[in-house]
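I am writing to request your help with a piece of structural work I have in hand. I set the record out below, with my sincere thanks for your time.
___
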Amino acid sequence: MQIRWIQLLEFRNYRTLSYRPSAKLNLLVGRNAQGKTNLLEGIAVLLVGRSFRTPRLAELPRWGSPSASIAGEISRGDS
C-alpha cells in the first residue's frame, strides 16, 4: 500500500498541508510542536478513519475552526 498524496485542511496546527511522500524512504524532521505527529495522525485518520490520539473527532479541527478535512489517494502495489 502506498500513500500517493494527502491534504490536510484546518487539521490540528495546519491551516493547509499538501504532502506527496516519496515511494521510498520518508523522514519527518523538525523542532518540537511543528506538526510531525499531527501529520502522522492525519495519515492514520485517512487510513483507518480514526485518530490514535483521541476518540473525539471534535478535537481534530484547528483551534477556532468548526471543522477539518482530510483527503488523499492510496494505491495498492507498485503502480
The first strand starts at residue 2 and ends at 11. The chain has a mean pLDDT of 94. The first helix runs from residue 36 to 48. Residues 42 and 48 are 10 Å apart (CA to CA).
